[in-house]
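Structure request: DNA-3-methyladenine glycosylase II, Geopseudomonas guangdongensis.
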Amino acid sequence: MTTKLSCAMALGATFRPQDILAFHRRDPQAIAERVDAAALHKGLVWGDAAACLSIEFHRGRAQACLSVDGAVAEAGQPAFEAMVRRMLGLEQEVEAFEQRHRRHPQLGPLLARQAGLRVPLTATPFEALTWAITGQQISVGAAVALRRKLVMAANVRHSGGLLCYPQAPQVAGLSEATLRRAGFSATKAGALLALARGVMEGRLPLDDWMRTLPVEEIRTQLEALRGIGPWTVNYALLRGFGWLDGSLHGDAAVRRGLQALLGQPEQVSEAQARAWLAEFSPWRALVGAHLWAMQASDVY
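Returned structure:
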């Protein structure tokens, strides 16, 4: 049995579909996400079922479809539409941000060149958290390869052929030995399993947090897990929850971008980056995304 949900969403004149597509094009082997010139096809777990999300971009609108290998609850349509809006960054107040800072001596010209930039989000906060754990202290290329091994270890496949990015039940069902064989360090394997079990046991209510966004509670609960620190939480708050005020001063690519933006010969320290980003609250993470994008889409 296959169930399909669909919706269409209007996009603003400055919407940048290539940012969305580039974010999901990171894995050249395309086992869980397939991207072409104007469309994304992504395998994911919807409820307990394998599903494939397709988003096609047209002039001024996006057309989305979710093909689920199974039944969909009555509340599925609004949940589906909310997921698509989050993934596309349509709830982000980028116009207000750009208007506020368009005259800034360093940031203003960058905003003019990258007008309309939004932060692409993952399908779920759990996906963002597992990606952040995976990417700790390694290059983006190495993180993409390790992420691929996690998807393969979970081995949930949609009828259309794509593997599905796992959610908490699938990760919790993996053993530490399986994760170690896939290339995860003991610390990362432990953090993934602790995260998944916390979600399964209701101690980490990611879906509720997504609706209420209690940032300090999220930070406290997640940082209590061994292997999860401030950088991981700030990245997940941005990519999974859409919180645009996390300070990404600990991110090496953000500091490289800031060094280039300031024309500074010496490297930017974490303290300097923190102080510079503070001026742009409540959009500090959005500034970080602009610093990522000025370099290349594959830094994030």
